[in-house]
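Researcher: We're teaching a course module on how sequence relates to structure. For the next exercise, students receive a sequence and then see the predicted structure as tokens, so they can try to spot secondary structure elements on their own. Here is the exercise chain.
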Amino acid sequence: MEKQTTSKKYTNIEEDLRQLIFSEDSHTGDKLPSENVLAARYNVSRQTIRKALEILEQEGYIYAIHGSGRYISERTIHRKNSKNIAVILTYLSDYIFPKVISGIDDVLSENGYSIILKHTNNSRSGEIKCLEELLTKDVDGIIIEPSKSNMFLKHMSLFNRLDEYEIPYVFIQGRYESMRDKVHILMDDEKGAYLLTKHLIDTGHKNIYGIFKSDDSQGQDRHKGYAKALSEAGMVYDPDKVIWYFTEDRKVHPYTSLKNMIKQKKPIDAVVCYNDQIAVHAIKAIEETGLKVPDDISITGYDNSRYSTIADLTLTTIVHPQERLGEIAAKTLLKMIRGEDVNPCVIIEPELIIGNSCKNR
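Model: And here is the predicted structure for the students to work with:
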């Protein structure tokens, strides 16, 4: 038990010191506090402090000068000719991401670049670890899909460090509110959800519910499009008709909430879903209550993914030009590396695909 406690102590101290190293107030060559000072600060033994410092030293974040102390290292070579591009995505093997990667790779490989591929599992801590690691590597640029982009950004210092090292980066499929001035490649998600909702309204639906993701900017924008279409049609927006969910709850909460609403005899005749994956969960919830899609309830998806066809059902959805998005991001980043001017915000127009998951009411 004592070993586990000690291990947790120096691991926590190591993480704390890592944040200190990457803070805006720290710079290459700055001296860290002595072992004695750190031991007193954390109320632990010098041995525990030494273990934390040894990890940071092994990873190249600090270096020791005998008789002088430990200092923050350069942490990166950044020759700007490495021909390495880092790509950070929320997921790698799931949903639309393989085609996004393929689009990026086609452009980069044609121009002699290699990809360093990272994923965050749509976790803020995962994104922080990826950025910290890349700051120790020699990369010419970064393409990044932000994790939980609707939440407050607490690790701005890492992006400031990228700016300090003159490492260009491009955001795709999302944006942080505090970094709107940075280069983004985005779908017009508000317009996409607007088109889906308007299609349902035009086909006679009166009680249109929505399922949206709350922790990313895409979910917020798609919700705006849903609300806008209702407003333009003179239909009252009802927050009780909207199901919000977090990334971690995506497999359970939308399905359970919709199923409960149906059991409560809510007058639902259509559901606008955040994406095709969520639409699949919604269809399952509807069918398990004895109702049918689209006879009883119409369903729309988003992204035109491999989930958009389920048996004889084809979702009404929005095209997601995955490879094209990857290509645009890669070409934009290469221009930035060459010092050329780029459009700071590229918006890809949505395209509505009408399947048989919606019925004319």
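Model: If you want an answer key for the exercise: The mean pLDDT is 91. The first strand starts at residue 62 and ends at 65.
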